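$ ./design --mode recover --in tokens.txt
reading tokens...
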């Protein structure tokens, strides 16, 4: 077997764009770099994509979600990552900090747009746009 084939070409992650009935968005302040982002993370190799987003959101925030629909696929060319984003509805649980999130808050889309890095804010705007899902590379 060619040794190049053993090395993954991309990491695959999931992003949960989680909304409550009042329209607010769940965001975390990452423990590693202090940025505000929608919750998400790496997909396990033996895990279904929808199950992965449910797991990642719960691990980072303590909130159980239900994926509603796929909203986008995002490829970061320089980091060799692909993120699969879902619009999710909050089901149960109260936001709490975790090893990966030093702060967890519900924000309006406008508040979130002001604090999220531009490419993460794009994922939120895409989730709100009924014309998706979107496929983007950057």
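writing sequence...
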């Amino acid at each position: 077997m060619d040794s190049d084939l053993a090395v993954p070409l991309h990491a695959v992650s999931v992003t949960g764009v989680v909304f409550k009935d009042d329209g607010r968005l769940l965001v975390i302040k990452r423990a590693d770099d202090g940025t505000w982002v929608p919750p998400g993370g790496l997909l396990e190799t033996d895990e279904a994509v929808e199950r992965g987003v449910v797991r990642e959101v719960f691990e980072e925030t303590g909130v159980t979600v239900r994926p509603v629909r796929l909203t986008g696929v995002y490829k970061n060319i320089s980091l060799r990552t692909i993120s699969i984003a879902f619009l999710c509805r909050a089901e149960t649980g109260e936001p709490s900090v975790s090893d990966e999130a030093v702060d967890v808050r519900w924000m309006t889309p406008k508040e979130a747009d002001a604090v999220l890095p531009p490419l993460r804010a794009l994922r939120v705007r895409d989730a709100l746009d009924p014309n998706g899902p979107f496929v983007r590379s950057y």
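exit 0
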